[in-house]
């Protein structure tokens, strides 16, 4: 039978229970193989209970020292109860100087104490008991997160000034640099907010008119890495020039914010508008050149586009690519059966082939084709080539060469490009 003897308001601080007439400290820590919280118990005395009940600091110190033992138990091991019991007297009943000496010899959970308000400076100087004089029963998890974020920055030599820290708080990246940035002005000290907004204004002016287009080769919501890199470099150069006092962390978070917002705008733009913004629209369906096109992928899936379609041929094709493209599906074809011509896009090799029918098959002989190859410069290059083909067929691609009919010559050109 188990009865609760003592508990604090914070549910994670260890409780004291009486189990089969014996006092025990009970705490939850870690998780089992099914990711359910594990619970550990070990015996304590009435004298220990008295200190736990009346001295929050000692209670928290004991918790901090026992947690590494729980971690050592893993997902299914047993708590080393002898080691846990051996901590009771030295932490709960010893003089402060002896407690400080003990914490210099054992493993303990610093985060737990910081979460509950311990003085960080005193902790780092080894004055453990003195640090706990300001401890609180109510936890503040963000305080420990900030401490560890500062430690990580210090380890790589990054020292933030007040404005640097305010900019990181504004973008929500003070705690975790990998967090998608967002605008959180309320997180900034009002006294520093105008300075932060001047930095943001510098970045916005630097990338005004720039965009990050989509890259359907990597899915319908993927964006063009080259566009991202271009905007990132532009913003960082402008911010460093206007605000040379900022550290790299602050400059990077501002460029990350600008690029993330531009990428989100692109992802939420219909494919037709994305084509128009990229400068490739030119009324692909209205030129009178193409009446029907067939799109296919490397898996044999086909999609038809007709001139009376409400959407442009290019938009339909890139949506087809975004839906179908994958690591094992990187060859896409656009074919105009009426004109006997088409293009084949090789995303795995950044290349393209244009195919023209020279002679139709007549039952006694196979058709004859002319196949020419060219290298492609990223998704922007592919967009230009698709737009030109849709508007004017293979003839319109001539200006986008050079085109090589010799496969060996093309492979040499591709190897030269890839080794640069």
Strand content is: 15-25%
DSSP strand tally: 10
Low-confidence regions:
281-288
**H/E element order:** EEEEHHHHHHHHHHHHHHEEHEEEEHH
Q: Can you describe this structure?
A:
This protein is 44% helix and 16% strand. A hairpin with a 4-residue loop joins strand 8 (341-346) and strand 9 (351-359). The strands form two sheets. Strands 6-5-7-8-9-10 form a six-stranded antiparallel β-sheet. It has a four-stranded antiparallel β-sheet with strand order 1-2-3-4. The protein is built from 17 helices and ten strands. It is elongated and about 100 Å long. The chain has helices spanning 46-54, 56-73, 81-85, 88-93, 96-103, 110-115, 120-124, 128-131, 141-155, 162-170, 193-206, 225-242, 248-267, 271-277, 313-324, 378-392, 407-419, and strands at 2-6, 15-19, 22-31, 37-43, 292-296, 302-306, 331-336, 341-346, 351-359, 368-375. The protein has 420 residues and is an alpha+beta fold.
Quick summary of this structure?
The protein is an alpha+beta fold.
Write the layout of secondary structure elements.
Blueprint: E1 2-6, E2 15-19, E3 22-31, E4 37-43, H1 46-54, H2 56-73, H3 81-85, H4 88-93, H5 96-103, H6 110-115, H7 120-124, H8 128-131, H9 141-155, H10 162-170, H11 193-206, H12 225-242, H13 248-267, H14 271-277, E5 292-296, E6 302-306, H15 313-324, E7 331-336, E8 341-346, E9 351-359, E10 368-375, H16 378-392, H17 407-419
Antiparallel strand pairs: 1-2, 2-3, 3-4, 5-6, 5-7, 7-8, 8-9, 9-10
Helix pairs in contact: 10-11, 10-13, 11-12, 12-13
């Amino acid at each position: 039978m188990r009865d609760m003897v003592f508990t604090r308001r914070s549910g994670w601080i260890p409780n004291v229970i009486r189990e089969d007439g014996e006092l025990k400290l009970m705490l939850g820590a870690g998780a089992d193989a099914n990711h359910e919280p594990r619970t550990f118990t070990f015996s304590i005395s009435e004298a220990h209970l008295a200190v736990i009940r009346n001295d929050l600091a000692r209670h928290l110190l004991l918790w901090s020292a026992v947690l590494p033992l729980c971690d050592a138990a893993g997902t299914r091991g047993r708590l080393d109860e002898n080691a846990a019991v051996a901590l009771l007297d030295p932490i709960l009943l010893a003089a402060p100087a002896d407690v400080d000496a003990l914490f210099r010899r054992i493993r303990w959970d610093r985060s737990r104490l910081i979460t509950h308000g311990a003085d960080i400076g005193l902790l780092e100087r080894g004055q453990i008991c003195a640090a706990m004089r300001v401890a609180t029963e109510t936890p503040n998890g963000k305080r420990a997160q900030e401490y560890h974020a500062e430690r990580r920055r210090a380890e790589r030599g990054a020292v933030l000034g007040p404005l640097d820290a305010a900019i990181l708080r504004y973008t929500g990246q003070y705690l975790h640099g990998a967090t998608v940035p967002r605008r959180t002005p309320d997180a900034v000290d009002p006294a520093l907010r105008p300075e932060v907004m001047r930095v943001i204004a510098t970045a916005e002016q630097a990338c005004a008119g720039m965009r990050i287009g989509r890259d359907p080769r990597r899915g319908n919501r993927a964006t063009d890495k080259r566009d991202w890199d271009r905007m990132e470099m532009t913003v960082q150069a402008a911010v460093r020039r206007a605000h040379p006092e900022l550290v790299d962390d602050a400059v990077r978070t501002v460029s990350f914010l600008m690029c993330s917002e531009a990428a989100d705008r692109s992802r939420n733009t219909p494919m037709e508008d994305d084509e128009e913004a990229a400068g490739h629209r030119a009324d692909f369906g209205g030129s009178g050149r193409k009446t029907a096109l067939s799109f296919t992928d490397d898996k044999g899936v086909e999609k038809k586009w007709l001139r009376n379609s409400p959407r442009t041929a290019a938009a339909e094709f890139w949506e087809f690519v975004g839906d179908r493209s994958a690591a094992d599906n990187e060859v896409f074809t656009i074919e105009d059966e009426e004109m006997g011509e088409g293009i084949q896009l090789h995303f795995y090799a950044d290349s393209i082939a244009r195919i023209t029918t020279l002679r139709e098959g007549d039952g006694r002989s196979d058709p004859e084709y002319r196949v020419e190859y060219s290298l492609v410069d990223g998704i922007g290059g592919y967009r230009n080539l698709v737009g030109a083909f849709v508007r004017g067929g293979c003839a319109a691609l001539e200006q986008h060469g050079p085109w090589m009919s010799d496969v060996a010559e093309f492979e040499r050109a591709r190897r030269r490009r890839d080794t640069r």
